[in-house]
């Protein structure tokens, strides 16, 4: 066996040329242009001799001019002084990589690493991507993206080294994303090249924060903060430099939470609800973070389309420790958005996508309906909107359905996907399938006290609400205890979900007993009687109650028992099944 291995090694060595000959094609790196993932920059072809550049005349190499597969030119800049002649690449601690993807003499993809705390491992990776052709339009021509490795797992962004494209959304399975979106981490990003950004200390997504409070390497909370340029607030303004500069104010926020902490390998992201704010927001100019090891040799600046990011000494952004408090204590908001992933299918890496306060029945991307946003779930989510921030982002658990709702919301829509037939994933565009028929529930606050008091049902999917429930007419008080999440930490959210699920399940068990006393055969709903998790107690608890409520309604109507119908409606919509305990 040893002899066979030795023979193979000798044959392999004989195939590798010691130097390049004119017209001879050297063997490429083994994982070049294959149909499997490319996780690293391929080294130069075997036998290729890189050029070592002494940029400052001190007699030591400062850069490697080389090529990668398909003869694409690359340049490694040694920004920490440890490069040696004979090296085929720089390091991924402090060095900088420049790539000329279209071979036109301009380096258009640049990757910079930086060790911010001096422990010998990179804490920051910056990617600057430039369009091949000049354009006056800022967005989306290029990328400026910075990843911070705050959990020390050495995972940063993902570049497909077969195509030399930044693939921030590439993943394995449902939501095991290649970029560092899992654990406690952060990134800043704008879909624009650096030369179109005036202040490179700022960014559009500034930042995107991921939290791992239970330290399992997965993300349980994500906060997205946007600094929107004027063009993004008013699309009528031209998409040009003057109208695409960052303002230094966070004006759009989303807070996504995995309420039951049921993420796991294979389902790395499972956010259950998102709370979002829009408006004047807050100034974050005092949120300064010093940088080190960004500056390389000034003599190398000539290789960059825009060398300014190498001269950065600080970044300005709200960090993990301060962002949440800044949102609630400093933010001035004019609108609050809420969405709950009722069908529990969201595998997105950042949030349960907001639904639009538009037509409840129109379905499809950019068609003016509830799921108008290209990244929203076509069915299964429940959206609620407080269009004047009268509720201040507070929540409540209603009596009429035992669920979490947005206080101050004027209206809400739940587009039902009871059995998760229309899976959302990270982006529904891959599925290219929207429901043709779905049930819808609409909620309205008619008296303006901040709590929903009217519920309408379209269960047959004909776009007409056939049933309307007026809580005031039933004598049910719509007011509930308010939940102020401004001081919440992750554990408070999980306690809230457990409380909600447990209460839902207790009510369901009471409903089963009541239904049995009135002669209903509840074994039809055996599937709903078994709940193995917090989420199942929440989901099945709701549906078990609803089915039994409607069956009892049908029974009492057949028996012409108007007195029992009245008691039933009050019992169900006030979460007080004991009201029906006695016949």
Provide a count of the helices.
7
Helix content: 10-25%
Mean pLDDT over all positions: 93
Q: What class, by secondary structure content?
A: alpha+beta
Gross morphology is elongated
Number of strands: 27
The termini sit apart by 85 Å
Strand content: 15-25%
* Rg calculated over all Cα atoms: 29 Å
- Uncertain segments of ≥5 residues (pLDDT<50)? 1-20
Brief summary of the model shown:
The chain is 16% helix and 23% strand.
Describe the structure.
Helix content is 16%, strand content 23%. It is of the alpha+beta class and 583 residues long. The protein has an 18-stranded antiparallel β-sheet. Strand 8 (159-160) and strand 9 form a beta hairpin. It is elongated, with a radius of gyration of 29 Å. The termini are far apart. Mean pLDDT is 93; it is low at 1-20.
């Amino acid at each position: 066996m040893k002899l066979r291995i030795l023979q193979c090694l000798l044959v392999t060595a004989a195939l590798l040329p010691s130097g390049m000959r004119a017209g001879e094609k050297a063997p490429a790196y083994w994982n070049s242009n294959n149909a499997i993932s490319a996780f690293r920059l391929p080294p130069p072809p075997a036998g290729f001799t890189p050029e070592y550049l002494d940029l400052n005349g001190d007699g030591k190499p400062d850069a490697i001019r080389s090529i990668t597969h398909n003869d694409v030119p690359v340049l490694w800049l040694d920004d920490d002084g440890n490069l040696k002649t004979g090296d085929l690449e720089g390091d991924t601690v402090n060095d900088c990589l420049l790539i000329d993807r279209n071979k036109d003499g301009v380096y258009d993809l640049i990757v910079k690493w930086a060790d911010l705390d001096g422990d010998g491992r990179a804490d920051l990776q910056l990617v600057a991507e430039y369009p091949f052709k000049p354009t006056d339009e800022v967005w989306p021509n290029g990328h400026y993206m910075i990843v911070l490795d705050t959990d020390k797992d050495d995972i940063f962004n993902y570049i497909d080294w077969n195509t030399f494209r930044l693939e921030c959304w590439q993943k394995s399975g449902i939501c095991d994303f290649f970029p560092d979106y899992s654990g406690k981490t952060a990134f800043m990003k704008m879909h624009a090249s650096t030369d179109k950004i005036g202040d490179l200390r700022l960014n559009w997504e500034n930042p995107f924060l991921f939290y791992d409070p239970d330290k399992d390497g997965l993300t349980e909370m994500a906060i997205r903060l946007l600094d929107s340029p004027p063009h993004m607030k008013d699309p009528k303004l031209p998409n040009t430099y003057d109208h695409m500069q960052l303002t230094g104010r966070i004006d759009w926020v989303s807070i996504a939470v995995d309420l039951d902490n049921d993420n796991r390998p294979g389902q790395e992201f499972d956010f259950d609800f998102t709370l979002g704010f829009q408006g004047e927001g807050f100034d974050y100019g005092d949120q300064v973070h010093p940088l080190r090891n960004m500056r390389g040799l000034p003599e190398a600046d000539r290789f960059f389309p825009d060398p300014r990011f190498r001269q950065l000494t600080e970044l300005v952004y709200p960090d993990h420790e301060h962002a949440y408090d800044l949102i609630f204590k400093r933010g001035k908001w004019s609108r609050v958005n809420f969405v709950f992933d009722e069908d529990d299918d969201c595998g997105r890496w950042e949030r349960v996508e907001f639904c639009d306060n538009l037509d409840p029945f129109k379905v499809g991307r950019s068609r003016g309906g509830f799921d108008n946003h290209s990244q929203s779930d076509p069915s299964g989510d429940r959206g609620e909107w407080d269009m004047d921030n009268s509720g201040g982002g507070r929540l409540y658990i209603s009596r009429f359905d035992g669920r979490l709702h947005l206080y101050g919301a004027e209206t809400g829509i739940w587009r039902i996907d009871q059995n998760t037939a229309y899976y959302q994933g990270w982006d529904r565009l891959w599925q290219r399938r929207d429901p043709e028929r779905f049930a819808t529930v609409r909620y309205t606050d008619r008296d303006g006290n901040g709590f929903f008091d009217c519920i309408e049902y379209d269960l047959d999917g004909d776009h007409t609400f056939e049933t309307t429930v007026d809580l005031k007419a039933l004598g049910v008080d719509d007011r509930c205890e308010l939940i102020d999440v401004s001081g919440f930490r992750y554990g408070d959210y999980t306690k809230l979900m457990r409380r909600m699920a447990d209460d839902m399940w207790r009510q369901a068990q009471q409903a089963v007993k009541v239904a049995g006393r009135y002669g209903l055969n509840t074994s039809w709903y055996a599937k709903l009687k078994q709940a193995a998790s917090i989420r199942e107690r929440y989901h099945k608890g709701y549906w078990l109650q609803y089915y039994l409520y409607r069956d009892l309604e049908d029974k009492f109507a057949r028996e012409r028992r108007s007195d029992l119908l009245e008691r039933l409606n009050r019992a169900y919509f006030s979460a007080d099944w004991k009201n029906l305990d006695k016949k």
